[in-house]
Design goal:
Layout: E1 2-5, H1 13-19, E2 52-57, H2 63-73, E3 81-87, E4 92-98, H3 101-104, H4 107-112, E5 117-123, E6 138-142, E7 145-155, H5 158-164, H6 175-188, H7 199-207, E8 213-220, E9 225-229, E10 238-241, E11 246-249, H8 252-257, E12 261-265, E13 271-275, E14 278-282, E15 294-295, H9 297-302, E16 308-309, E17 312-313, H10 314-328, E18 335-338, H11 344-354, E19 362-364, H12 377-387, E20 388-390, H13 392-395, E21 399-404, H14 411-422, E22 427-432, H15 454-457, H16 460-467, E23 471-474, H17 477-484, E24 491-492, H18 494-497, H19 539-544
C-alpha cells in the first residue's frame, strides 16, 4: 500500500495517485512556490550536479527526520525536487514535490511519516524533464509486492530497454521510472506462494544486468533497504552504521549528520541488502564487467569538501590540486584568490606552494540559488553580478592569480574577469585545477552538447583571449589524478578525454522517453556525436568574433 503526497503539473496529483490504486496519505501536502528556472545554464559555469540518495534502516527511530537531515546534507547534488518513502513494515508512504528539501518537508509532514526504514532523493534531472512526475522516489505496487526506488546516475540504453519491453511513448518518462517498471514486471512473475521476503531481491538480480550506464540506487520494500552500484561505480554510495541501525548515502557527510560512522563504500557491481538480520551482499553482474570508474569530477567539484572518496579527504585533494598547479604553472603576482566556493581549496594550495599571499577577491551571494531568468546577454551579465561581487579594496592595482575548478561554457568566467578588471585588477592570471572540459557527460552530469563546451571548440590561447585574462593554464590529467591520492583506483575521465567506459548511442538525449521533446539526429557517424542547434548562440562563436578587450597587454 502507498500514500502519495505532493504537488504536480497535473490538476490534482494526489487524486491521480488514488485513481491508480494509491491510498491517500496521512501526511499534509506541501506545495512550495518554486520559482520557474527558464534559462539557468548561461549563469552556471560548473557542470550540472547529479542527484543525491539516502537510505536508513533504524527500528524505533524517527527515520523520516533522519532522512530529512541526510537529504539536507546532500542538497548540493540536486535542487529541482526532493522526496522520501517511509515504511512501517506494512505500508509504504511516499512524499515528494518540486523544490528544495526544506520546501518540500516541514515538521508536520515529517511527524506523520512513521516507520523503521526509509529512502530519500534530491534530484537534478539528466533523463526526463524537471516535473513532479519525474520527482523521486518512484513507487510500484504489484499484487502482494510493493517497493520504492531512487536513482543517482543516467542510463545510456534507456530507449533500447523501453522498446524491448514494448512500452509506448509516455508510459514512463525517465530512466529511473523505466527501471521501476522493469522491476515491477519481474515481481509480477513471482509465484503467489513466494513469501520468503526476497522477491524484490530476485527481481533486481534479473533486471540489473540489463542496465547500461551509471546508477547508484537505493530501493526499499516494506522490510528491506537495498543499495546498488553499477559495475563501474561511476557515482559514489557508502554504508554507515549508527547505534540503532544502518545508513546508505551518496556522500559521507550525510552519515555524519545523522550520527552514523563510515563503514565502507559499496563496491562497484554490488547489491547490499539490509534487513532485521543485518546486511548481506549479492553480486548479479559478470565479474568481467566490474571495473571501477568513479567520476573524477567528484574530487574536482561535486562532492562536499568534508567528504571522503577512495579513502581520501576531498578538501585535501583539492588543496593538492592547487599545489601541483603552482608547480606546473607559476606566475609573478600579488594575490591568489579562489572563485567561491569550489575554487577556494585549490587557491589555498596554490598560495601555499607559490608563497603568494591568499586573499578574498569575490563575495558570493549564498542565497541566489538557481532562480535567475536570463533572456539576453546583458541580463546574463547582471545574473553573474547577483551571484558574485568584487572586493575592490582587495583587488585594485594588484596582479591576481584567480583559481577555479573548471570552465564549461565560459560565460560566467568571462563576466567575472570583466568585473575584476572594472574593480581595478592590474593583471588577471587564470588557473584551473582540472584539464580542459571538452566532452559531454552521458552518465549523470548535465553539461549540454559538445557545441556548448568552450574547450571543445577553441585552443587554450583562444580561450584566454575570449575570457580576457593575461594568462590561462589548466592542471594536466596525470597531475589531477595524483592529487586525488588514489591515482590507480580507477576513474572516469570521459569529459576530459572523450574515452567513454560505456558506449553511448547517438540518439541519447535528456528527452529520450518524451518523444515530443527529442531533437532529430543528423549525423550518426560516431557514438560520441550529439546534435546541437546550430542557430543557438554558442560561446565559441562569440570567442571567434574577436578577443576580449579587457586584457592588460592590449
Amino acid at each position: 500500500m502507498i500514500g502519495l503526497v505532493g504537488g504536480s503539473d497535473l490538476p490534482n496529483p494526489p487524486l491521480a495517485a488514488a485513481l491508480s490504486g494509491a491510498r491517500s496519505a496521512p501526511a499534509t501536502p506541501v506545495t512550495p512556490a518554486t520559482p520557474v528556472v527558464l534559462d539557468p545554464a548561461p549563469t552556471e559555469e560548473t557542470p550540472g550536479h547529479e542527484c543525491g540518495v539516502f537510505a536508513v534502516y533504524a527500528p524505533a527511530q524517527p527515520v523520516s527526520h533522519l532522512t530529512y537531515l541526510g537529504l539536507y546534507a546532500l542538497q548540493h547534488r540536486g535542487q529541482e525536487s526532493a522526496g522520501m518513502a517511509v515504511s512501517d513494515g506494512h505500508t509504504i508512504t511516499v512524499v515528494k514535490d518540486m523544490g528544495l528539501v526544506s520546501n518540500v518537508f516541514d515538521d508536520k509532514t515529517l511527524a506523520a511519516l512513521t516507520g523503521h526504514l526509509a529512502i530519500g532523493h534530491s534530484r537534478y534531472s539528466t533523463t526526463g524533464s524537471s516535473t513532479w512526475r519525474n520527482a523521486q522516489p518512484f513507487y510500484r505496487n504489484v499484487g502482494d509486492h510493493s517497493f520504492a526506488l531512487a536513482h543517482n546516475g543516467n542510463l545510456v540504453n534507456t530507449e533500447e530497454l523501453a522498446d524491448e519491453a514494448g512500452m509506448l511513448p509516455g508510459m514512463v518518462t525517465s530512466d529511473s521510472d523505466l527501471v521501476a517498471e522493469l522491476v515491477a514486471r519481474e515481481l509480477a512473475e513471482e509465484p503467489e506462494a513466494s513469501h520468503d521476503g526476497r522477491a524484490l531481491e530476485r527481481a533486481l538480480v534479473k533486471v540489473l544486468p540489463r542496465l547500461k550506464g551509471a546508477f547508484s540506487f537505493v530501493i526499499m520494500d516494506e522490510g528491506h533497504v537495498i543499495g546498488v552500484r553499477d559495475p563501474h561505480g561511476f557515482w559514489p554510495l557508502c554504508l554507515g552504521k549508527s547505534e540503532h541501525g544502518w545508513v546508505l548515502a551518496s556522500e559521507t557527510p550525510a552519515l555524519d549528520i545523522v550520527g552514523a560512522h563510515f563503514v565502507r563504500e559499496i563496491e562497484p557491481g554490488e547489491v547490499l541488502v539490509i534487513d532485521a538480520t543485518g546486511h548481506r551482499s549479492v553480486r548479479p553482474f559478470d565479474e568481467r564487467a566490474v571495473e571501477p570508474k568513479l567520476c573524477l569530477f567528484e574530487f574536482v567539484y561535486f562532492s562536499r569538501p568534508d567528504g571522503r572518496l577512495y579513502g581520501q579527504n576531498v578538501h585535501q585533494a583539492r588543496v593538492r590540486m592547487g599545489e601541483l598547479l603552482a608547480d606546473q604553472f607559476p606566475v609573478d603576482a600579488d594575490m591568489v584568490m579562489g572563485v567561491p566556493e569550489s575554487g577556494i581549496p585549490a587557491a589555498e594550495g596554490y598560495a601555499r606552494r607559490s608563497g603568494i599571499p591568499q586573499g578574498q577577491g569575490l563575495v558570493k551571494n549564498r542565497y541566489i540559488g538557481r532562480t535567475f531568468i536570463a533572456p539576453n546577454q546583458e541580463m546574463r551579465a547582471l545574473g553573474v553580478r547577483m551571484k558574485l561581487n568584487p572586493l575592490r579594496e582587495n583587488i585594485a592595482g594588484k596582479r591576481l592569480v584567480v583559481v577555479d575548478d573548471s570552465i564549461v561554457r565560459g560565460t560566467t568566467t568571462r563576466a567575472m574577469v570583466s568585473m575584476l578588471r572594472e574593480a581595478g585588477a592590474r593583471e588577471v592570471h587564470m588557473r584551473i585545477s582540472s584539464p580542459p572540459y571538452k566532452w559531454p557527460c552521458y552518465y549523470g552530469m548535465d553539461t549540454g552538447t559538445r557545441g556548448e563546451l568552450l574547450a571543445a571548440n577553441l585552443e587554450i590561447d583562444e580561450i584566454r583571449d575570449y575570457l580576457g585574462v593575461d594568462t590561462l593554464a589548466y592542471l594536466t590529467l596525470d597531475r589531477l589524478k595524483v592529487a586525488t591520492g588514489a591515482a590507480g583506483a580507477g576513474f572516469c575521465d570521459a569529459c576530459l578525454t572523450g574515452n567513454y567506459p560505456v558506449e553511448v548511442p547517438v540518439s541519447l538525449s535528456k528527452a529520450v522517453l518524451e518523444k515530443s521533446g527529442c531533437m532529430p539526429a543528423r549525423d550518426a557517424g560516431s557514438t560520441l556525436t550529439l546534435v546541437f542547434d546550430e542557430a543557438a548562440a554558442l560561446p565559441a562563436d562569440a570567442a571567434r568574433q574577436g578577443p576580449s578587450r579587457g586584457r592588460s597587454n592590449e
